[in-house]
Amino acid sequence: MKRIEVFMFVFLLVWALPHGEKALACSCMELPPVSEAKEQADAVFLGEITAIKELDMQREVTIAVQEAWKGVEANTITIYTGFNSADCGLPIEAGESYLFYASDWSERENSRFLTSTICTRTTTAASAAQDIKELGAGKKKFIQSQPAPSSERNANWIIPGILGSIVLLFVLSWIIRKMRN
């Protein structure tokens, strides 16, 4: 009886822990040409990183936009990326400028959750001369904006998941006890 309960507890504990994408290694296909990358991206812009905030499973990057070719209206934008190349995160530094190709992964219609990875054409501004030439003249006037709120709200599933696992554990224990009696 005790062994089954311990096994169920350990199983549910491991099941409830965040895992999945974080454990996967990053593997990218060949980068598309500039025109195709622009078409696939939801936002293409040149900007300087003003802040990098480390969250639970990603980094939140605040960028002062200098020029935009697609999907950017504000002078400040926030994107999300992994921590390193193992989780497809960009090798970026605050104070440096980059040409970003970002995708919108938001699940809500009126919000944006822009991400960029090493599997995009995102690169340092110094290495982006050919891309910028092919993109042509971009937009350089933007509306003033506030950085987007932190993506920590996306981690709101953790507490309900743990509570649900505990309830499931008690229900399974109750069922097993009833079956044995």
From TrEMBL:
Residue stretches spanning the membrane: 157-176
Keywords: Membrane, Transmembrane, Transmembrane helix
Cited InterPro entries: TIMP-like_OB-fold
Protein name (record): Tissue inhibitor of metalloproteinase
Source organism per UniProt: Sporosarcina jeotgali
